[in-house]
Amino acid sequence: MRKNAHALGSLAALVGMLAAAPTAAAAQQMAQQPPQQQMQMQRMQEQLRQFGEVMQRMERIQTRAMEMEQLMIRDMDRLRQQTQLQAGDMVRLREQERVRDMTHAYSNAAREMHQSMARLRDMLGDPDHAWNQDMERDMERLREHMSDMAGQMEEGLHIMDRIRDRIHQP
User: Fold this and answer.
1) What pLDDT, on the 0 to 100 scale, is given for residue 63?
2) Mean pLDDT of 73-81
3) Fewest CB within 10 angstroms: 117, 125, 161, 162, which?
4) DSSP letter for each residue of the chain
């Protein structure tokens, strides 16, 4: 699991660099375009950079959720290894399983959102397709919506962390 988290972190850095840094060929191509096209190209590059930032947030959410899930699995295993479980321990174990399931669902949701955003980023960065202003506005709204969702998911992980901590209290 840690290897996956490390690989996700490396991938996030690479995606961020690719989305944020225009290539020399793109810079040369921009210099040869009329000012209106240059502005459109700059807006698209900025949107690509912003998509990359939200994608990195989703990767961090997924990684954090996976780490939380693994921590809960270890905690539950320790509790199960006790020779005599009391009724309260069984209740705590069930509660931990439920929170672990929610955390797993968060991790899956973050992965799915990341994949969706990658598709949108690819659409936006497609040089063969010229987007009109309405489409650009809609893509920007969608990016903002996904950024808001990332914020809500981050807050949800903080809440689940507090719940997990409370479950551990005797």
Assistant:
1) 92
2) 85
3) 162
4) -HHHHHHHHHHHHHHHHHHHS--HHHHHHHHTS-HHHHHHHHHHHHHHHHHHHHHHHHHHHHHHHHHHHHHHHHHHHHHHTSSS--HHHHHHHHHHHHHHHHHHHHHHHHHHHHHHHHHHHHHHT-TT-PPPHHHHHHHHHHHHHHHHHHHHHHHHHHHHHHHHHHHH--
Closest CA to 14 of 70, 55, 44, 62: 55
Task: Determine the Cα–Cα distance for residues 22 and 15; give it in Å rounded to an integer.
Answer: 12
Cβ atoms 68, 85 nearer than 8 A? no
CB atoms under 10 Å from CB of 135, counted, come to 13
Q: How many residues does the chain have?
A: 170
Q: Looking at mean pLDDT, say which of 8-12, 80-84, 98-102 comes out highest.
A: 98-102
pLDDT of residue 134: 86
Instruction: State residue 59's pLDDT score.
Output: 93
